[in-house]
Amino acid sequence: MAAEKITDGIWSVGILNPNLRVFDIVMTTDYGTTYNSYLVKGSEKTALIECTHLSYFDRYLENIKKVCDPSEIDYLILNHTEPDHAGGVAKLLEANPNMEIIASQAGSIYIKGITNRTDLKLRVVKEGDSIDLGGKTLQFMIAPFLHWPDSMFTWVPEDKTVFSCDFLGSHYCEPFTFDYNVTYPEAYETAFKGYYDAIFGPFPAYVRKGLERLKALDIEYACTSHGPVLTKGNLLDYAMGKYAEWSAPKAAGPKDVPVFYCSAYGNTRQLAKKIAAGIRRALPDAKVDTFDIIKHPMPELAARLNGCDAFAIGSPTLNRDAVQPVWNLLSHVDAINSAKRPVVLFGSYGWSGEAAANLKARLEGLKMSLFEEPFRVVFVPSAEDLEKAEELGFRFGESLK
Question: How many whole angstroms separate alpha carbon 262 and alpha carbon 246?
Fold first, then answer.
């Protein structure tokens, strides 16, 4: 991506990374990503909004130079300080040591750790603060947990342009800046939904507040930190509509209590079926499905796990531990919203039975509410074991009423 004009006085100077396939270790990025950054030039001052990933800094600096000399930048606006946004700040300061860094209170703390510098020229901004560039005003809107505590939006009313940070973004890369040039809309929609689920899914109440803030503005351009610039009448309307749909409060209805398991020889599976039967007996209207973890897509299982009212999870013991697919599923737990979620543990074992204890420690670490002690059987469950498993499920279901 070379420098490209958004509107008079505003340019995109970010970086394309079409080959990225994993972001932040756990997010798949089948369509790459972009590290967006923007220059805003007023008649008196110049601001750079966001920096970039350190790996691409040299090319990024060349993009900036197509618009202005880096020494002419007066302000660096950090809407968010995650390293894909701010990893290049220390090097940027080598090119311009005089620029003032603008950040939220939390951001001002984080950027010191990212740059390993305590001599930064920093200004902390609060809700409603503004900077006049000369014919262009930067107005700051503090937006915590969208998606870090430091996040904020920057609004330029003269150009009806909001710099929305990660909000409304996507890990999606085509060689175009604007949304109306997206060539593969279905691929964009897939990337957009996956991005929301991973980054904003844990914060629905904050998403709703963010939408309220943006709906009060007459936005023509939403300059996100990843993906295309969204424009009024095109994907901006789609994006905001989907955020409203996905963040809507969950309607009251029957309990959702899935049962997840892995089973080497069918023994843990037998327990899963009986526990599910017991839950259904206690909660006849509940949605109680059983999932053999290795037979279902992990994103589907993770969404069900994070959206349920309670769940059961079982594993055999192999090599003194729970099996890898079970750990993989639990690595997708939305720890922020899963605290106190009821869970029951179970499993069959042979030589030793450490799986249940290890899972218990993990779920206690996630602050979940464990129901009774893990239910374990040695090798093949007997008729009595299966009866006990069903009664465990029944008691678990009763506790959810």
Answer: 30
